[in-house]
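Illustration 12: DUF4276 domain-containing protein.
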Amino acid sequence: MSAMNEKKVIAVIVEGPSDEAALGSILKEYFSSEEIQFVVVHGDITTKDYTSTDNILSKINNLIESVKQKYGYKIEDFLKIIHIVDMDGAFCNDAIVEKDVEGVHYYLDRIETKYPDYLIRKHTQKAEILSKLYSSGKINGVSYRIYFNSCNLEHVLFNELKDFTDDEKADMADDFAEKFEGKVEDFIAFISQEDLIAPGTFKQTWRFIEKEKHSLERFTNMHLIFK
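Figure caption equivalent — predicted structure in token form:
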């Protein structure tokens, strides 16, 4: 390891820039003795057309490779990979309702879309891939854990279940980061609220979110990042 890289690296994979904006300073403060590198996917890697259960581990590994090349890391420089995803009602195919609406509308008890068959296909793909990811434990020998926000990050952080624009998400994320700047303990307390956390061990939180309408409701297991 070069002198520059004496810190171990934690790669944090997120869906969009607002996820990094909201959580970046909190994670950097909490893991201050490590080097945090964010990998922004710009979308949901689990539902992309080129992703399947057969290739998802190599797709994640490619993201880590890009970080390695960009900063000149070796694989042994990595301490762990933290992957944060939105659930988007992935396990709620039976709650999908055909409606003449633009895009996809999420509610606590249903999902409205003009193209239910397409959404069911995407959800099925996402559910299978998530099951593979939370069971994997390691990617290329590096400890790997995937954490969820349900229905999405904004729902968990702001208790708002609506379709925000990217600009709105960015503003909300900045406000959130400011609110918890230098207050990691406060954030951990917030994210560990009894009515917010999926119960149990890491595996149990995933089994919980797979059931009933939990992947539409407001739950997270991000508190386990800080355990």
